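Table S2 (continued). Query chain:
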Amino acid sequence: MASRSLLRKMSMSYIFSVFVRELPGYIIFAWIFMPVTLLLLLLIAYFRIKLLEGESGCGGNEGETPVCQTIQF
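Corresponding output:
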């Protein structure tokens, strides 16, 4: 019986639940939620800029060949 109690106390889920119970809410917000949110917003802004650059790069005057058709990969 004592070994079962010891195994329960040493299990990962028990340690994690004790850690989360003792962790203040502002730490969860400041250290986990905010960086993830800022990273996602940064990725959205980056890909929006890249998408706008791609759209403007393929357009051009009717007499000129668009830049996107002259680039060879």
